[in-house]
Amino acid sequence: MSLLIGGVVSVIIGLLGLIFWWSDFVIILKGGIPIIIVLGGILAVYIGLDEIQDKLREERQKQEESLAKAREEIEMVRAQAEKYKEELDRMKEESKKKD
């Protein structure tokens, strides 16, 4: 109950303050709004830069993953080529033995 009474009293005092000091309130708003806009702009720039860095990190990670995948494929192809080379050498030796 005391909280309700305190809230009502605060609302009444606040409304009276706005009525009697309206011009002062407007002056404070005139001074505060540009500051809020500047701080909001700084925050937006910071968030934008952070987002750009995240995108660059993601792209770099994707490139590293594709590079690793390409390296694995190259190693598989090399191993297969080595296998074919050994088989070719063996077939050459067999054909020499038959001759």
Brief sketch in words of this structure:
By secondary structure, the chain is mainly alpha-helical. It has two helices and no strands.
What labels describe this entry?
99 residues, mainly alpha, rod-shaped
Show the helix and strand layout.
Elements: H1 2-20, H2 22-98
Can you offer a commentary on this structure?
This protein is an all-alpha fold and 99 residues long. The protein has one domain (2-98). 97% of the residues lie in helices and 0% in strands. It contains 2 helices and no strands. The termini are far apart.
Biggest beta sheet summary = none
Q: What share of residues are in beta strands?
A: under 5%
On the 0 to 100 scale, the average pLDDT is 92
What is the count of DSSP helices, taking H or I runs of 4+ residues? 2
Number of domains: 1
Shape: rod-shaped
User: Radius of gyration, Cα only, in angstroms?
Assistant: 38 Å
